[in-house]
Design goal:
Distance between the termini: 31 Å
Order of helices and strands: HHHHHHH
Strand content: under 5%
Largest sheet: none
Shape: globular
């Protein structure tokens, strides 16, 4: 395996810096959404609706820096940036970032780090959903909820991760490819 280049590490750091800021903004949306949904009895859905947004650094990092571990590193660094920006979620975001990145990494691993496409992003979305939901099932005490509510939370999380981590990441990659093509044709 080739060594990581400084350019790749710096690119991951830039991705992390940008997504850390996005994650901070998502924290504000989370607080607002929780305030709206809690009186209706749907407070836990605030996390699930926005969950995919907090997982985007991993697939973007994995798609742009195509190396084993880049999804995990990108997500953990983004979580670190969020924490350093002052996230009220605190250091716990590092554990979440590790699990989210590992879930996405499973998708790229399934393609033996040779396939970076929609199918492998989708596998990563399932991996991210499974690992993170298992962890947060205990962290948030979802076991005290009814089975129907737990299943609903899981489905909403999966849909959120698919939207943000597959559909939106694909759109970002298409824009990135267009910018790359413009740079080549004008260069």
């Amino acid at each position: 395996m080739k060594k990581w280049r400084l350019q790749e590490v710096l690119f991951l750091a830039l991705i992390a810096f940008l997504f850390g800021a996005i994650f901070m903004g998502a924290g504000v949306l989370y607080a607002l959404l929780t305030a709206v949904l809690t009186p209706l009895g749907y407070g836990p859905f605030a996390n699930e609706i926005l969950f995919g947004l907090w997982t985007m650094a991993a697939p973007v990092a994995g798609m742009l820096v195509r190396r084993p571990g880049s999804a995990v590193l990108g997500e953990v660094l983004a979580a670190l940036a969020e924490m350093l920006y002052g996230s009220y979620f605190g250091p716990g975001v590092l554990v979440s970032g590790l699990l989210q990145g590992a879930g996405t990494e499973l998708g790229f691993l399934a393609g033996r780090y040779r396939r970076y496409d929609s199918w492998h992003l989708l596998i990563g979305a399932f991996g991210t959903t499974a690992l993170s939901f298992f962890y947060e099932f205990f962290k948030f005490g979802y076991g005290a909820l009814g089975v129907g509510m737990v299943v609903s939370l899981l489905i909403v999380r999966l849909l959120s991760v698919i939207f943000f981590g597959v559909i939106l990441v694909q759109a970002i990659m298409k824009l990135y490819d267009k910018v790359q093509q413009l740079a080549v044709t004008r260069g």
